[in-house]
Write the structure tokens for this entry.
Amino acid sequence: MTNRLSKAVCGTGLLSWLAACLLLLAAGGCATKPKRKYLLYPPPPDTARLQYLTGFSSGKEFFGQSGFSKFVLGQSLADKTVGKPYGIAARRNEILICDSGFSGVGIVRLDKRVLEQFIPTREGKMQTPINAGYDAQGNLYVTDTEREQVLIYDPERVPLEPIGRKGEMKPCGLAISGEHLYITDLKNHQVRIYHLPDRKLVRSIPRADDDGTGKLYSPVNVAVDPQGKVYVADPGAFCVQVYDADGKFLRTLGRQGVGPGQFARPRGLAVDREGRVYVVDAATQVVQLFDNAGRLLIFFGDPTITGAGATSLPAGVAVDYENVRYFEPFVAPGHKLDYLVLLTNQYGDPRISVYGFFQQP
């Protein structure tokens, strides 16, 4: 009896000892885990205004996959990938990615933790989708340079009558502000402005009475600020052209060159609520941020590295106030996010980079 009891006690003690060892190993692992490095812009000792938060090239890479997630969600997470992204946009719980790699739109559903691919067929089929956005009713607009039309889908993804006829224009950039849809037209060197309720063309930029100072050469992307000013990325002029709400030319932002405040091939364009302007340069492969007076604040992105903060032929940029909460766990201590800055890279990894702009004290 004594021997059996001793063996039982020893067995129990051995199990306890093993459990304690496992706990110590886990604690040791946590203790020796390298401290996370945060990529801030500008770097210390300057006051940081922006941070690289995370990046991804597939749904699985971004959301991960585990037995626990499968148990909770009742399904396996789809491992969709990002191919060759250009335009990017966002609304609550969603990030839209125009992807010519699979001729469709990637939809990151943050609330459902999945990356989906919208690839319509027949009359709604996309050929080379470049930029996308939603109107207030939830209709999806996509510019397609190969179809030479602005494709439209209702909230149920049913294709509607597109804007434009074959040969009429070559749509590229897209912005929605109030009841107006702004489309850059590479073929006719202009920005076409449509009234959303009836989708009728109401005016274009430059205006017919322009004296030539506001001429557009290669208008690729467009953004509208809270005051209604229209910004047009024009790589043919190596600058961003700026117009007032009526389409009158105001000034240019930047000039030809590869230094700070200069552009070699301006592409993606976004404006935040304070009128700060983000401009992607596909040649220097960085993003430059200007204040509402046109002064350079910072630039970010690095084509010479791989991984976090890397840029490889960046194309589209968007400002996102709706989905901040999903990315707060990535924020460096002592900072609070104001909004997100979403960036596409047509090559390399990650294809999609997410930055955060800090609230200023």
Remarks:
- The two ends are 73 Å apart (CA to CA).
